[in-house]
Amino acid sequence: MKPLTVVSNRLPVTVGETIEKSSGGMVAALEGLGENADFQWIGWAGGAVKDPDRKKEIASELKERFNYTPIFLSRKDADDYYTGFSNSSLWPLLHYMPTKARYEERWFDAYRRVNRLFADTVLEKTGEDDIVWIQDYHLMLLPAMLREKRPKMTIGYFLHTPFPSYEIFRCHPDREELLEGLLGADLIGFHTFGYLRHFRSTVLRLLGIESEFNVIHTDTHQTAIGVFPIGINAEKFLEGMKTEAYREAKNTLQRANTGKKVVLSVERLDYTKGVPRRLDAIERFLNETGRTDVSFIFVCVPSRESVPEYQELRRSVELKVSRINGKHSALGEIPVHFIHRQVAFEELCALYCLADVATVTPLMDGMNLVAKEYLLCQQEEPGALVLSEFAGAAQELNNAYVVNPYNVKEISNALQLALDASEKEKRQRLEPMKQRVAKYDARFWAQSFLDSLSDLPRETPEPTEIRPLSAEGLHPSLAGKNAALFLDYDGTLAELKKRPVDAAPVGEVEEILSLLDRQEDLDVYLVGGRARRDMDRWFSKYRFHLVAEHGYCVKEKDAEDWVVLTPEADLSWKDQILDFLELYAGMTPGSFLEEKTASVVWHYAGADPEFGAWKAQQLVSSLQEMLSNLPVQIHHGKKIVEIASVHANKGAAVSYFMTKYRYEAVLCAGDDETDEAMFRLSDDRLRSAKVGAGETAAAFRCPSPKAFRAFLHALLTSYSTGG
Ligand code: GDG
User: Fold this and answer.
1) Residue of the nearest CA to atom 27 in ligand 1?
2) What is the rounded distance in angstroms from the CA atom of residue 537 to the CA atom of residue 531?
3) Cβ pair 380, 364 in contact under 8 A
4) Which atom belonging to ligand 1 lies closest to the Cα atom of 373?
5) How open is the CA angle 665-668-670, to the nearest 5 degrees?
6) How confident is the model at residue 686, as a pLDDT?
7) For 548, which of 138, 156, 214, 581 is 20 to 30 Å away at the CA?
């Protein structure tokens, strides 16, 4: 196995007078991967250590004992990056709570700065061949920062929270940069398919990048996405339940709750966990049933207490607990036991084991490990789990009493059902879930993520018969001959734009056109799908031959006027379809019609991407029926549907000029279906190149317009130097 580096916000240690290792699921999962694995961990040591000597001491102890590398943050960076951006801005949004999210520009500056600090440390501590696995929402920019410096590095990223729907994520002021940061990874893992689906649609809507089933192609590389539901450290709980401390805790608990049924809640005191509504449900349950035989134990671990929303939550929870206890307590009897601190691990195991019911009702939760831990610890009497449908865990644990956590009545009813269920029913529900939790544990999770990461194809496999386009390769077949280039414009020489008017030649595109213009010994044809007026407006200043409307009409370089190559073409069908197409344009906001002489185009790049694609499918199938006997071809291209005369054909135009000027060598290049007519010409003098991905009849391929321009640049330079 290649060396593995895990990077997370916090190292799994507590640094105080001494250094204690924490023992969460991640640690166990990763350490269990193999004794011999070359494994290191990079993360914040926590707090703000100022003294340089103390920093050195901590770093060397962490290195020696665990092979961990600490990152030290200043108080200000910790405040802005961690408390601010991560926990007050991202966390609420990722959990569908935009009204709790706050934004400060300086928080994002700190987030960027700290992600950069992590990147520098990772680059220093790893080699080209290492696998880097980044954890969670604190480090969303890190994948792209690493990719920029090490294009070939293997980078995995796992998001422990939900990924919300586009409608929520779009609220974030820095949304594009965050997504672009994530897309630096080779593999992004989510707990559920729902989160993955939201991520894909957000990338499509915010960055305009389409994804295949499980791969997102960016200009530079591809990012796979996958579902890896995290599991628990099962072994640790089973071991914990064998200890003396556990037995003692269990005895104490049993004595304190004799004759009672115990209902347990365990969580960090976080507004995503649904504690206030759960308390409302308990109040309702007590009001309705008047039961005095139930003890509700809340273990609420203090969390993020410097964030105002958490302080407010604490006040509201304390208020509710005292109101319920005020009303329903009797001498020696208190219904709600509110423990606002962390309990020891063995005590937690004892609580899990003894509780008759566990209530896990978050309003939103990436996975929720407590639910799984509770199930595993049912090693004696079977207990029952009341579980929120908004926890990622509900996808796997469908034998639980699944509730809507916003519905107080439903939680209260489920509580009654769970408390009164027969032993048989409880066992029937419990066993399959318990087996699942034991089998798909944290180690399984880590192993399956890392296996998927290692198995990713490193390069896009291209069919072997399509060769990469290279200037050195092509130069000999063109040099010294009567040669011509037939070049498509949109998507080939210039990047496709949402609005066709935005693709006017500027910058690099203009430079390459000028370079082409200076080639005395090469004839250059711009072979576009555009109307004559566009071609005239943008290209008449060059000495190019222009071919408009996919070959319907041409204007040679010294000519004054356009000539229609196929004047006999029947265009009467246009009138039949214009009204129909107008209707589609009207029904699809952001789309519009373009009428040319021999074709009509419906452009939908400005429409909602999913709605646009859906309407395009509908349009194409209706047109296929309407136009089946007419001399037209329907071309469903990149964000367009074009209905054109069959006589307008780039291949025919190329043939026409090859015959007319007796070229000895020709290169055709294009990016879409209409260019295939050129590529399909069978003529020994012709070389063909496809720009971009997808099936093609071309002999060569080039990944992008940018790369194609670089190819032309190299080709033309070797031309002018005679090289
Ligand atoms: C994030 C996501 C996702 C709790 N109280 C005590 C204690 N705990 C331990 C539990 C459990 C862990 O804390 C809590 O994990 P959760 O998964 O429930 O929740 P988050 O902390 O919000 O975790 C979550 C998770 O990441 C993993 O991807 O499932 O959705 O939000 O392991 O046992 N441990 C001890 N005493 C306590 O009082 N010893």
Assistant:
1) 160
2) 10
3) no
4) 33
5) 170
6) 94
7) 581
Question: CA 130, CA 139: separation in Å to the nearest integer?
Answer: 19
Q: Which atom of ligand 1 is nearest to the CA of 370?
A: 18
Residue bearing the CA closest to ligand 1, atom 35: 345
Per-residue model confidence (pLDDT) at position 208: 87
Q: Using the mean position of ligand 1's atoms as its centre, give its distance from the Cα of residue 444 in Å.
A: 18
Q: Which residues pair with 358 in a beta bridge?
A: 264, 385
Asked if 86 and 138 touch (Cβ cutoff 8 Å), the reply is yes
- Which among 190, 361, 368, 385 is the best mutation to test ligand 1's pocket, defined by most ligand atoms within 8 Å of the CB? 368
Report d(CA 157, CA 225) in Å as an integer.
10
Dump strand ranges (E) for 45-114: 68-71
Distance CA 713, CA 723 (A): 13
Ligand 1 centroid from CA 361, angstroms: 14
pLDDT at 468: 79
What the chain holds in terms of domains, given with CATH numbers, is 4-52+65-227 (3.40.50.2000), 234-439 (3.40.50.2000), 467-566+648-721 (3.40.50.1000), 574-645 (3.30.70.1020)
Distance CA 149, CA 560 (A): 52
CA of 368 to the centre of ligand 1 (A): 7
| Whole-number Å distance between alpha carbons of 667 and 488 | 11
Edge-first strand listing for the sheet containing 294-301: 336-339, 294-301, 261-268, 357-360, 384-388, 401-403
Asked if 274 and 298 count as a contact pair (C-beta separation under 8 A), the reply is no
Provide the residue type at 506 as one letter.
V
In 310-459 the beta strands, taken as DSSP E runs, fall at 336-339, 357-360, 384-388, 401-403
Residues 590-614, buried b or exposed e (16+ Cβ, 10 A)? ebbebebbbbbbbbbbebbbeebbe
Nearest Cα neighbor of 204 from 555, 605, 515 is 605
The DSSP 8-state label assigned to residue 465 in this structure reads T
Atom 38 (ligand 1) nearest CA: 342
Q: Bridge-partner residues for 644, per DSSP? A: 599, 633
Residue with the two structure tokens 């005895």: 251
C-alpha triplet 341, 343, 347: angle, nearest 5°: 155
- Tell me what percent of the chain is helix, strand and coil, each rounded to the nearest 5: 45, 20, 35
Q: Are 444 and 234 in contact, with CB atoms under 8 Å apart? A: no
Residue bearing tokens 């590095």: 153
Tell me the CA distances in angstroms from 311 to 97, 270, 316, 370, one per residue in order: 17, 10, 9, 23
Are residues 405 and 411 in contact, defined by beta-carbon separation less than 8 angstroms? yes
The residues assigned a catalytic role are: 488
185 CA → ligand 1 middle, Å? 26
The residue ranges of the chain whose pLDDT is under 70 are 23-26, 28, 31-37, 458-465, 720-723
The closest-lying atom of ligand 1 relative to the alpha carbon of residue 392 is 30
| Residue of 134, 370, 444, 449 with the most ligand 1 atoms within 8 Å of its CB, for mutation | 370
Residue with CA closest to ligand 1 atom 21: 268
Length in residues, the chain: 723
User: Which residues sit with their C-beta closer than 6 Å to ligand 1?
Assistant: 160-161, 230, 266, 268, 299, 301, 342-343, 345, 348, 365-370, 373
- The pLDDT of residue 397 is 96
